[in-house]
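re: that complex we talked abt at group meeting.

here r the seqs, copy pasted straight from the sheet so there may be weird spacing, ignore it
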Amino acid sequence: MARKTIKVDYLARVEGEGAFKVVVRDGVVQSAELNIFEPPRFFEAFMRGRHFTETPDIVARICGICPVAYQMSGVHALENLLGVTVGGPLRELRRLLYCGEWIESHTLHIYMLHAPDFLGYDGGIDMARDHGDRVKRGLQLKKTGNEILQLLGGREIHPINVRVGGFHRAPRKREFKELAEKLKAARDIAIETAHWVSTFDFPHRERDYTLVTLRHPAEYPFNEGRIVSNRGLDIPAADYDAHFEELHVEHSTALHSRLRDSGGAYLTGPLARYNLCFDQLSPLARQVSDEIGLGRQCRNPYRSIMVRAVEVVYACDEALRVMEFYEEPDRPYVDVEPRAGVGYAATEAPRGMLYHRYHLDEAGLITDAQIVPPTSQNQASVEEDLVDFVGSFLDLPDEQLQHRCELTVRNYDPCISCATHFLRLDIDRA
Amino acid sequence: MRIRVIGVGNLDRGDDGAGRAVARRLRATELKGIEVAEQEGEATSLLNQFEGADLVYLVDACLSGAPAGAIHRFDAAAAPLPGKIANFSSHGFGLAAAVELARTLGALPPRCIVYAIEGENFAVGVHLSGAVQTAVETVTAELISLISRQ
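got the structure back, here u go
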């Protein structure tokens, strides 16, 4: 029996560990396993006993790339519990903060991690040798996202200005002046980026995914909305646990998320948002999408780089809108008082939906916490992509086959560390 | 001359915090004429820190097989970082990538010195190990001496 094992192990690293193994027999993919080690489980445990006001500063530490997502899901879940609604300019500032994170995270993935796959380079540095000016423009775009975090979050990484009820400090309107000019330039680069990535040669593969995203009636989703799917799901975040479950699988220390009713995998992230919320994109983002021929629906995960590029256009556009219409709030936060109960929220991290649930006692101490990151939710979908797609790539030489597998995983932008550290390949041919 | 010291690492991951520990010690000395920065290690953010600097000292933890606390010094402006260190940096797409990306884009400071401190324990929530603690003190003292002579 012809047996081939595509096994990419991983080497020790501090910020995350990933590996995958695909087993092929007689030209058919038998199994695909993605193994990701994620630290958030530790966080859930050591958040117990902490005061709820510490949450945004603790959960920001879960991820160096998307700390805003963890902060936003955290504060919204707690505000849900405490019966507080944060509206007006403070709500707008939260959208602005999320724009910054989407810009920097997506742009990093597009330029440094994903584009080199399509252009035949080993990585962003090799690509920069031939495409230096383009990479510089991309880095300028990313830096503008960082500067939003710097201004609004207090610093670029692990922002410190977020609190339950709002912000510690709200910016003055005049502080946006210089940043707005940079964002206009960034938006132009984002449009260029979308056109550039649309010229790549994409494998023609599609799957009929169960797509899951937040959807809001009036805006492309960041912080608020109902959890919806293309299969008719339409629930508040409070019902998440009734419809999704986390399972242990032998080959991964990270939990796998599944739909409770079917036990099936689902996909969250840019493709899900785009397919289910296209109508909420700004007119400019929709126009760019049309210009690059993306279409209103996209089920090809390899084209997710195009979707990310359109989302970056949107994030720049939305950030400019927020800054233009911003009115300084009287106070940077609304008061919150502890109470016992349970609170839920989901927000849209760059790479997908991020669900948080907290239980508090009367003193405001956390008695239980649940955090379900998008990478956990997408793991099963990544494995199904490998099973579905890799069989049709088996005529490729081993090196190219490994690369195609890695590209398939990178479609999900699972995390910066995993996406850059697939180093070793073991081929086991019978 | 603009001199910048950039400590790289994750303070929550044991010896990975070595570079930032050096940065914090240097900042505490209130040494004149330098800028001190701390970074988690993501390459493009690190690259942004190079802007406008004439001399950059980068301090990071590494894992190359040397004894814990070993101090590796490289003149990154003169030559690429050795593959052994580059591949075993504790930050994936991190310091070595930032240096090489900067070199490729013509954005590497005229002088760029890398200190890599060999770590041994990168577990969540642990302190710097003893040998690394000593190395942190050594590197801090060396940088103070070097910078004072500039």
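couple things i noticed - The first helix of chain B runs from residue 18 to 29. The first strand of chain B starts at residue 3 and ends at 8.
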